[in-house]
Automatic annotation (TrEMBL):
Belongs to the TRAPPC13 family. Residues 157-280 form the Trafficking protein particle complex subunit 13 middle domain. It comes from the Eukaryota. InterPro entries: TRAPPC13, TRAPPC13_C, TRAPPC13_M, TRAPPC13_N. Residues 293-390 form the Trafficking protein particle complex subunit 13 C-terminal domain. It comes from Candidula unifasciata. Residues 1-153 form the Trafficking protein particle complex subunit 13 N-terminal domain. One of its GO terms (cellular component) is TRAPPIII protein complex. This is Trafficking protein particle complex subunit 13. Signal peptide: none annotated. PANTHER family: TRAFFICKING PROTEIN PARTICLE COMPLEX SUBUNIT 13 (PTHR13134).
Length: 395
């Protein structure tokens, strides 16, 4: 017999008005209903518990509990009784019996041998509980029999992930978790266990006057078919930053650890496999913005620092060209164009200080930076590398 928690007895009231035909009779029947909550006649749930009438559903990550009883229905004494309970899955066979390997000396008539087994379900699909009993009659004859109990393990949650690679080498992970069980579940714990190359920060809380609070509230209930998004930021460890090849080759992000409870307090846990992201492609030259102001005054100059990294397998001889593009007329480059930057070896970086002048107010985009490799006569164009907000300052 499977051991499961009881459920709350539902109450289905038939609402009527006093002027309806048989309205008084239906009202009295509703008041006499045992599942009715006192003082809440139209509430759909009662204050009584209902024992399960069938095997019920078993979901991945939950704990399967079962009560096993071997009863001697005969009038004879049985000796050397052994009980084995094995769980056969699609990939393995597990022994679950808590009774020792030594046979039980005897079993009197009308007596039982009881055992309770527990197992955290970690595989989907068909499971078979195999119960094998062996005993000896008083005549010395050895008897044995087996019983099989088959059940299906269902999927409780549907987890989808999305990755966003930022220019700062940070990776943002969005995890969409959907409840596909027939009842509500309460998300007790959702966390990301990052791989060795990353550190993670959870972005699912908001700051208030009394500290940080979860964005989903203190009671994180997920109704059937509802979906919730969780966001995490992963930052590469310092030793990964120094080598571009290592940074490009890191595809393992980590694992999601999800813990929930059902409406009756039964606990479930699910851990995903190693999450994989598509490694970003930097090309031959990678350009990142090291520093840029958020807001600048109109008709004033401001400084910008860019970092250039040689990502190819050869040394490059670079020339910097600054172009004022017509698609971004609000900013003008200030400085020498066609400047020789010199040779940049493989996997080396170079910081370039630049200056611009703001001429039009509003949100402006920095574009028009060109790098030419003098060895191959190849030009690399970099547009929309950053944005600044230009404001008018009254004198």
């Amino acid at each position: 017999m499977r051991l499961t928690k009881p459920t709350i007895m539902p109450h289905h009231p038939l609402v009527t008005e006093s002027r309806d035909l048989c309205g008084d009779l239906i009202s009295r029947l509703n008041d006499a209903e045992i599942s009715r909550t006192p003082g809440l006649g139209a509430f759909p749930l009662g204050n009584l518990l209902t024992l399960p009438q069938n095997f019920g559903n078993i979901f991945l990550g939950e704990t399967f509990s079962s009560y096993i009883s071997v009863h001697n229905d005969s009038s004879q004494l049985c000796k050397e009784i052994t009980l084995k309970a094995d769980l056969q899955t699609g990939s393995q066979r597990l022994s679950l019996s808590s009774i020792g390997t030594q046979p039980i000396p005897e079993l009197q008539p009308d007596h039982s041998i009881d055992d309770v087994i527990h197992h955290e379900v970690k595989e989907l699909g068909t499971h078979i509980l195999v119960c094998a009993v062996s005993y000896m009659l008083t005549s010395g004859e050895r008897m044995q029999f087996r019983k099989f109990f088959k059940f299906q393990v269902l999927k409780p949650l549907d987890v989808k992930t999305k990755f966003y690679n930022a220019e700062s080498d940070e990776v943002y992970l969005e995890a969409q978790i959907q409840n596909i069980t027939p009842g509500p579940i309460y998300m007790e714990h959702v966390s990301l266990d990052p791989s060795q190359q990353y550190t993670s920060a959870e972005l699912n809380a908001k700051d208030g006057k009394e500290g940080s609070h979860p964005v989903f509230g203190t009671l994180d209930c997920l109704s059937p078919s509802d979906t919730r998004q969780y966001l995490y930021c992963l930052t590469p460890r310092p030793e990964i930053y120094s080598d571009t090849r290592l940074l490009k080759g890191v595809t393992n992000i980590g694992k999601l650890d999800i813990v929930w409870k059902t409406s009756m307090g039964e606990r479930g846990r699910l851990q995903t496999s190693q999450l994989q992201r598509v490694a970003p492609g930097y090309g031959d030259i990678r350009l990142t913005v090291e520093s840029v102001p958020d807001t600048v005054a109109l008709e004033s100059s401001f400084d910008l620092v860019c970092k250039i990294t040689n990502c190819c397998e050869r040394t490059m001889d670079l020339t910097l060209v600054l172009q004022n593009v017509t698609s971004s007329p609000g900013l003008l480059w200030s400085g020498v164009s066609g400047r020789q930057l010199g040779k940049l070896p493989h996997n080396e970086s170079l910081d370039i200080p630049l200056s611009l002048i703001s001429v039009i107010p509003g949100l402006q985009t920095i574009s028009g930076l060109r790098l030419t490799d003098n060895f191959l006569k190849r030009t690399y164009e970099h547009d929309e590398i950053a944005q600044v907000f230009v404001v008018s300052v009254d004198t």
